[in-house]
Amino acid sequence: xxxxxxxxxxxxxxxxxxxxxxxxxxxxxxxxxxxxxxxxxxxxxxxxxxxxxxxxxxxxxxxxxxxxxxxxxxxxxxxxxxxxxxxxxxxxxxxxxxxxxxxxxxxxxxxxxxxxxxxxxxxxxxxxxxxxxxxxxxxxxxxxxxxxxxxxxxxxxxxxxxxxxxxxxxxxxxxxxxxxxxxxxxxxxxxxxxxxxxxxxxxxxxxxxxxxxxxxxxxxxxxxxxxxxxxxxxxxxxxxxxxxxxxxxxxxxxxxxxxxxxxxxxxxxxxxxxxxxxxxxxxxxxxxxxxxxxxxxxxxxxxxxxxxxxxxxxxxxxxxxxxxxxxxxxxxxx
Length: 334
What we know:
The chain is an alpha/beta fold and 334 residues long. The chain is built from 13 helices and 13 strands.
């Protein structure tokens, strides 16, 4: 009798043990699943300087990430802005690496270079880098080969030159204003100069080491050229108000390479859409978060743009915009 009772008790305990094991296993799987689904992706973003064009890129990055499911509790963005200070670029790059971000994003070339110097392990996505190879960020656009990939905004120099010919056919000498401290700018100037000289223009280069020399350089340049062309250049963009004010008396047509600069006093340009660049950058960051390797991810290139015309400024300069140019423009500023 005792043996039978003991057997029943042991059987009951065995059932309890098996049930507990099954419950524990299910609970563990559920906990693991919940943990996986609620994991927050951490993206570190370093912006070189405050400027409407770069701000648009950052907005696009956020929207690109959201489009791929990274929003709300699924995403934490660690954002820093160096405000054009190279020493801050270095310090902030190291901080973003040490903060444990899963992916790093550099908006503008100096930011991407700072992040690249700070880590060779964490994945980095370039946001709007004009010449990634020339800036020593990737070995090859198709096969980056390291921990960096991203988006390149190749300046549509030929389209810009075509616009200069249509709006100001009497221009013979073009002054190229750019920063000597930005690697991408020199490359753009070389390309533009080759195209312009082939078309019969004379191009004079005017480089400045910092924003402090823009006013004095403009005073010299405006007396020697018929028009001013500016590449995608963060230093010049951050002080474009100085360019415009220094041109008040000379009234030379200015052809910059960003919509915001046309709005601020440029005559016209053909520009790559900065917001679209940002969206593409955000989507690429999302791919990296999902497991894609930067080394095997080709750099995405934006190399065609839409014209932006400042009709109000054209009137001030006494320039009549042809109707076909206005009709084809992506944006006309009245």
